[in-house]
Amino acid sequence: MTTPERLAVTSRDGVSISVEKSGSGPALLLVHGSMVDGATSWAAVLPALREHFTTYVMDRRGRAGSGDAPDYSLAAEVSDLIAVVDTIGESLKLLAHSYGGVVTVAALDRLQRVSQLILYEPPIFERRREGKAEAIRERMEEALRAGDREQIVTIFLREQIGAPPEALAGMKASPLWPSALAAAHTLPREIQVVNTLRVPAEKLKQCTIPTAMFVGTTSSADLQESLQWVSGLIPSCRVVALEGQGHVAMMSAPDLFVSKLLQVTGGAANAASSTSLTY
Q1: Tens digit of pLDDT for each residue in 164-178?
Q2: 242: Cβ–Cβ under 8 A, 6 or more apart, which residues?
Q3: What topology is assigned to 5-127+204-277 in CATH?
């Protein structure tokens, strides 16, 4: 295995985006979701992926080794992603989880170097989710002004995600909690995007990149609904079930996750056996 190399990619607005390069083989860019950084999101699957791919793990702006800006926009994150893709400078596969998938879909018309997309439950909905969502965001921003990172994450998990008390307690006791607290300041702005974003159906219909969408069979009804809408519009989109898993299978079932990814990308000998993958 190659020694990991840390790249600093300058985005359009001057923010530095940190990317870790390692492994060997075809290029695979991994884009994490909310509440984590790149290392935390993909730690359990990276050792196996490095055996098949040259992996590029980016930290989205506002966390870990990446910089940030005083003002936030989804367009800025799109520019971050394009800057990383251009820096890689070759044809690549792109795996994006949750909010990372939101950024990726927003960038669809600028991903000419991407040969394959794997989207894992991006929260993209047919209709805006306003009303109650606005009150949630306001409470999170109030906690942010007070410097109460634990309250921000708690509101996010309990009210935005709908995590039950036992799941919230488990999260607080898990090794992920410090990473979640470190990224807390990014959560209000990201749920604002998720709750108000309206992706035009035509944009999805015009996608020419071969696309697979991962879905956990135990994921929430909202995420299932999102998947049905997005996958139904992207031409020839392949839907891949992660049996018995929810929104973070790369952490909860890394072997299963890697197996499915290798099947989809052609990195496994049995990649052609796809019947069991359809959900």
Answers
A1: 888 889 889 988 899
A2: 214, 215, 216, 217, 249, 253, 256, 257, 260
A3: Rossmann fold (3.40.50)
